[in-house]
Amino acid sequence: xxxxxxxxxxxxxxxxxxxxxxxxxxxxxxxxxxxxxxxxxxxxxxxxxxxxxxxxxxxxxxxxxxxxxxxxxxxxxxxxxxxxxxxxxxxxxxxxxxxxxxxxxxxxxxxxxxxxxxxxxxxxxxxxxxxxxxxxxxxxxxxxxxxxxxxxxxxxxxxxxxxxxxxxxxxxxxxxxxxxxxxxxxxxxxxxxxxxxxxxxxxxxxxxxxxxxxxxxxxx
Length: 220
Fold this sequence. Notes:
By secondary structure, the chain is of the alpha/beta class. The protein is built from eight helices and seven strands. It has two domains: 4-95 and 207-219, Rossmann fold (3-Layer(aba) Sandwich); 98-205, 3-Layer(aba) Sandwich (Rossmann fold). A four-stranded parallel beta sheet has the order 5-4-6-7, with helices on both faces. A three-stranded parallel beta sheet has the order 2-1-3, sandwiched between helices. Strand 1, helix 1 (15-31) and strand 2 form a beta-alpha-beta unit. Helix 1 packs across helix 8. The protein is globular.
């Protein structure tokens, strides 16, 4: 089996916490794959991708992203090409077949209540919206009695509006890393909406994620 590099977007204005979190995740994944080296880099951390490619020049890339969109199909390939790499890019975390079950488990453990699945969204690209709406549809049949609403930070329906309509719901950030959107933008939008419900950690922070990624790399 080849070596792998986990790549995420990160947080440009404060890249170190996300970089450290992704490195810790890569270490956990590597521990589940004996004989395989797994490193990590965020695009936001200057020089990080170049450094790990120097260490693992033949590694395959695992995008720790929630959708197959602009970053995975354009930005990441361009960054790799600029570094002289032709590394294969695998399917992103958001496309993992085990992710719906993890979302269902996360919501069930959080207790009763409506669910707000909050994602990034975009005024231009449709990938984030499509992935989020597909997840809402997949999990709906497995969470009977709950109203499930998708909400976005960058497009309609905005989180602040959905949270105002469901002030006591469970809000699950459909994000990979705990960066600026999860740590700042989502709590601020909920506070402005008078949200009184429960804000969960991002789905990518779940401890089961390392197992999902290790299984995906094992199948690659």
